[in-house]
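STRUCTURE:
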């Protein structure tokens, strides 16, 4: 694997992460990260759908009329999402019930359609597969970090296994109920974005409304 092709796989992990840099896929980060098990399942489902969709769309990109390309892309993605949802219902029914409609809503996830439209439609199959896999792993990394913090501080458990004994059972740990509410995911993702952009200043967006002093000059 050449360095350039490897870049397609590794860049979305931090440097071009779809969640922390492009601010995509936030809704699922709020909904499925109360436990690491649901976050992992959602991550796997999206990564498989994204990788397969990128490969399929890249394969037929030269045969897609411009006027219907989005319709075809959404149809392919929706078909893959249905397969993933039915697979979970067949082999992991309890997890499917816990995820509710959110697996089905992968079809509306901006990450999937954006990679299909901006990358798979313009590149060969192998780079498209690596790009889809890389973006899926980048999304998964953020979800697992958020889920680890929320489940750990919210219940004292990791993948459902109690690692911190709560006060109610005679331990010292007091679970933070706020961590199990959706707003906590916003705060965690916000802090994660701040931490990354503090270390990688190239990701900091320019100020659209710079502060001006009384003399009319700009202040940093």
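SEQUENCE:
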């Amino acid at each position: 694997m050449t360095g350039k092709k490897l870049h397609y796989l590794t860049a979305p992990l931090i440097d071009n992460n779809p969640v922390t840099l492009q601010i995509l896929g936030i809704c699922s980060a709020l909904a499925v990260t109360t436990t690491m098990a649901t976050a992992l399942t959602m991550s796997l489902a999206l990564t498989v759908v994204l990788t397969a969709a990128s490969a399929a769309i890249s394969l037929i990109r030269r045969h897609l009329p411009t006027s219907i390309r989005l319709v075809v892309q959404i149809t392919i993605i929706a078909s893959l999402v249905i397969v993933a949802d039915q697979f979970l219902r067949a082999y992991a029914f309890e997890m499917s019930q816990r995820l509710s409609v959110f697996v089905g809503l992968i079809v509306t996830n901006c990450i999937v359609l954006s990679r299909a439209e901006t990358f798979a439609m313009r590149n060969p199959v192998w780079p498209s597969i690596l790009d889809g896999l890389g973006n899926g792993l980048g999304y998964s990394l953020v979800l697992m970090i958020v889920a680890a913090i929320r489940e750990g501080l919210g219940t004292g458990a990791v993948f459902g296994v109690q690692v911190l004994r709560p006060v109610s059972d005679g331990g010292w740990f007091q679970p933070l109920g706020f961590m199990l509410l959706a707003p906590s995911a916003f705060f965690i993702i916000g802090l994660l974005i701040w931490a990354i952009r503090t270390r990688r200043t190239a990701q900091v967006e320019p100020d659209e409304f710079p502060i001006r002093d009384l003399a009319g000059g700009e202040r940093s």
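REMARK: The longest strand covers residues 157-158.
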